[in-house]
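Both lines are given unchanged directly below:

***
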Amino acid sequence: MTFNYRGIVKLPALLAMALAVLGLPNLNAQSADSSGNGLLKGTFAFRHVAVQALDTNYNPTEVTATYGIIIFDGLGDYTVNATVVDNTANPVSQPLNVTGAYAIGSNGTGFIANPLYPNDSFDLIIGAVSQGVFTGSSTESYGEQYVLNDIFVAIPLGPNLANASFKTAYRTGVLDFAGGDSSAIKNALFELTPNGSGGFGTISLTGQASNQTATNISQSISGATYNFTGDGSASLSVPLPSGVSFTDALFTGNKTMFQSADGNFILGWTASGYDIFFGVKALTVPAEMSTAQGLYFNAGLQDSIHDFGTDSYYGSLSLTGDSNGDGIAHQRTNAVTPAFDFGSDDYIVLNPDGTTGGGDSLGYIYGFGVGGSAYVGIGNQGTFALVVGLHAATFAGPGVFLNPIGVVNSASYQPITASLALGELITLYGTGLSDVTLSTPGGQAFPTSLGDVSVTIDGFKCPINYVSPTQLSVVVPFELASVRSVYANIQVTNNGTTSNVVQMYYQDTAPGAFSQNQNGIGFAAAEHAASGQPLDSGNPAQPGEYISLYLTGLGTVTPAVPDGALGPTGPFSTVDVWTNDELTVQFNDYGTNSVGNQGVIQFAGLAPGLAGLYQINVQVPSGVLTSNAIYVEFVTDEADVLEVQIPYGSGSGFAAPQNEHAQLRVADHIKTMRTRLHQLSAHRAKVNNPVARCAAVGQFGSSRDCNK
């Protein structure tokens, strides 16, 4: 492999190319929010592990690992001085010295140009900075046969340390593509306990390796040492675990490690290897369920060699900290092209040491750091992963203040990293948003002003359902389609005073189903279509019957209606995503390994006589589901949301976590999206045509995809 570095194409050109790949006109397009560029400033150590090529089973055949120093100027430009190691290159190791651009928004989300391909907008590393650390993934990488799966982590450097100053324990995770392919992938979770004199206490590892048959592996290492070298880095010497060969060791060898300026994080790697390890400062008091609470920005890279292969993502995890460990997960997943939004319920149960004894709904085992400020996660049960999660900052401001992380889907509660969609009912949080508390009366269209409050997205007024000093509920206007930007800028006006602007990503659909307990999870707000009676445990759905589900975020409709209007009672307004065969509803019983059972949609459109709501009437499959509570999954060409359940059959069951079937659940949604997007490839040909893409970017220099 020979790298072809051509210098950076500055931000406007990057954005133009990004719009081009989506098939979007650049007229009136919004620019990326760069008001938070100062959040990413200074000298950082970074590690970037990228799977650049896959076999026919989506497993890695080429892995590139980059390490070194990146300097962010706080104004939108960076400089890299690094080394690249690639298992297919000759020579394997090469220097990397490039400059690039970046844009960070007011809430810390944004992107940096990929140091491997700094003038290719299709490989922007999208993620977030929080607590000084940036992590992300190149989710929008493009190509019919090419998907770049990666994880990028950068931590700010502090002063040079002496060995005696390093004596903080770190909960640490490692992912290692030991051979640069899928032959020997490893991951493990462990605690590093430096003693302040160049040594570590016993390292007890729990993990897995693809070259071993055991599902869970425990190893113990004694005698590991560290030595800070004067440039901010430490050299680690990690002996083999007791009784374990080099090939089978989860963590061993000579490694480089950096500590962040605040002492809260460590980042490391093997200079000649394809590994990455990341640690968070360990808890100093026993964890409670409330320790893991709030919004965490995250990014992950994973491979399941026996199931769905490689994928990566950026996103966020919103945890309630309640006794159940309830949460909502969003992943912008890069397992296919184009990438898609995956939404899921989640359940995090903490041990006193901040770890989770078993996998969550996404199949990860976590280690939370001091105060719940961050976490590191690994995969289990045959999925090899590293996930880095950083608690988002707490935001406050004067006057009319819209919380930069306080915009969610009103039904699914998908968080700020998820995309907005036309017609979506969204909830906005902040302070000073209204001087009164009012709701639009039932049976009436939503006005664009309520209680002297208005909300705009890219200048278009939003229909308003509810206003209060700390919370608003509005509908994303259909007129936004005329702008066709990848960004949506939201602003509140209260009695003539405007708020700050919050920017989110935008796409055509972002389905979210309303739940009975109004938190996005548990039993769906659903009815028997024939009788209109609600579904509940005493009156569950039956095989073969039609049920009505209520959603938001299904996009444009035909015939079109004014924003905020009541759904027509005749002729009905049907959603275009259904008419175009880009919508499915699936019923999944993970307990019996029955997944992907597609229901027959009878109607999908605006809910007749209601404002701001969509309705789907769908037939529950017969003869394949046996559980009493089954998941309902909504899949479009751009999103896959799996959060709500329905009571089914005998009705004696109840909505409950499905953590024990996490691997099946994750594999199913990735396979579902791959199948759906392959089916739709002809329909989306003008967007996914490599020839058209190359023509679009040709004026900015050749893309590597065009040269394949």
Residues 563 and 583 are 22 Å apart (CA to CA). Residues 662-679 form the longest helix (18 residues). The chain has a mean pLDDT of 88.
